[in-house]
Amino acid sequence: MFKKLSIILLFFIFSQTLFAQANNYLRNTSLVNNKLILTFKYNIDNVKPLALEGNGLVKYIYDIKNGVLPKSKKISHYQYKGIKTFRMGQFNKDYLRIVIESYSRNKRNYSIVGKVLTIYLNTSSSIQQKVYPKKIIKSKKSYAKNSHNGKTIIIDPGHGGRDVGALGKGIYEKAITLQISKRLRKELQKRGYKVFMTRTYDKYMSLKDRTEYANARNGNMFISIHANAAPKGKPKKNYQGFEVFHLSLENSDRERNNRAYYKGKYYYSVAAYKKMTSSWKIATSRKLAKKISSAVLTKVRRGYTLNDKGIRRSDFWVLLASKMPAVLIETGYLTHDKELQKLRSKRYQERFSKGIADGIDAYFK
Ligand SMILES: [Zn+2]
Questions:
Q1: In which band, very low, low, confident or very high, does the pLDDT at 330 lie, cut at 50, 70 and 90?
Q2: Residue 48 dihedral angles phi and psi, to the nearest 5°
Q3: Which CATH number does 22-144 carry?
Q4: What separation in Å is there between the alpha carbon of 173 and the centre of ligand 1?
Q5: For range 191-205, the mean pLDDT
Q6: Starting at the edge strand that comes first in sequence, how are the strands of the sheet with 242-247 ordered?
Q7: For residue range 214-223, what is the model confidence (pLDDT) as tens digits?
Q8: Could you give the 3-state DSSP secondary structure of residue 207?
Q9: What is the Å distance from ligand 1's center to 190 Cα?
Q10: Cα 225 to ligand 1 centroid, rounded to whole Å
Q11: What is the pTM of this model?
Q12: Which residues are within 5 Å of ligand 1 (an ion), measured at CB?
């Protein structure tokens, strides 16, 4: 019994060593979402990553030890936004080389699990416009982790599609919220956060779909971006400024009237509402609202006037049903001429986004 086992074991170890030195044929390539997946015949022995930067491009090189490109196999031609070219070839007899020319820096590099090499094409800060001097960056293991330890932020640009939101001088809220959200995404990615947006173009999305999207991605934070309008019949010039809403079931109509209601569409009892939240979520959301509010005021007021309408409590659906600290930011009033002008400008949007990002940083500190 023992003898038999040791023989099998020896053979097993021996053959594993043999396999490691043998030609490790590439069996399959596929592109799934942002992942380029390469499957080999045997466990991958070693991958040497390299990044070369120049002329507005980052060239990611992966040299796979013992990797062999099968002669008969056709290599799929993939297209991915932000990627200029994708090449693969036999670098020398020991290494298979994969080259990905990207317009932007990748946040995460790659991972190896057994026979599978996964290369992440997730793009972050764009370098398309800039020209960098040629230099070699050796990829480190720590490359995979960012300073925020992979915190995921869900940005929710309010409204969209047939739901246009507020209106000011022919400008719809849905357009402003998307612009600010995209700038915020860029800023957060620059700071090392992982970011998802509930929508990235002008499309309708129900509130339920938005929170389900956020929950499915296990966000650490939900940021809903909106813009305001003065109430009908009230003087428009009297309404300007920004405010941040966080979840609370106090002062809620639903609570007070003990009725189960949501915009005539989804019906929940007050008990169900209470189940959807927790004291943890309420406390963290309040903390987040405070951090964002003060950071935005600090940042924006360095170059503009900004009326502080404060921190407010609400039981908005997006705050209630997202299973993470959540805030809703009313960035300003589209019905106020001067504020509309600012809200439409790139500089103001960027500054505002930086303010929000500062608040998010402060929250995690
Ligand atoms: Zn809105």
A1: very high
A2: -105, 110
A3: 2.60.40
A4: 7
A5: 95
A6: 194-197, 152-157, 221-228, 326-333, 242-247, 308-314
A7: 999 999 999 9
A8: helix
A9: 27
A10: 7
A11: 0.59
A12: 158, 165, 226
